[in-house]
Amino acid sequence: MEVTRERQRGRHGGGWDALRTTRIARQIADGLFPEGTVLPERNSEPGFDVGPWGRLPPAQQARYARYMEACAAMVENLDHNLGRLTDTLRALGELDDTIVVFTSDNGGTTYTPGERAPYAPEVVARALGEAAAAFE
Length: 136
What we know:
With 136 residues, the chain is mainly α. The protein is built from 4 helices and no strands. The N and C termini lie far apart (46 Å).
């Protein structure tokens, strides 16, 4: 398999706004979302806000495009290797008796030492309790 990072090079130079627009259009065309689905606004949470791509200086655009390339390459590599795993399980006759569990971490936190961590045990427990209650 071609090195995935090289396969992704240059594919994200249009920025996140163009990528979001292209992806939602493809998802609607593929029937994943109904016609008329509106793309939500970019994240605007204080401290986590994402501004318009076009307002970034060229150096930041280049850096963030490389970040998106690296992320896309990791996802492509994961997808390829998950395919290899399922092909092997199928060849062994074990695929139907196998559950594949994938977990992910969305990266580092902006937590500042000395502040209360947003992932403190009581915060996580409360969030899990609220999530569980939604299914009751």
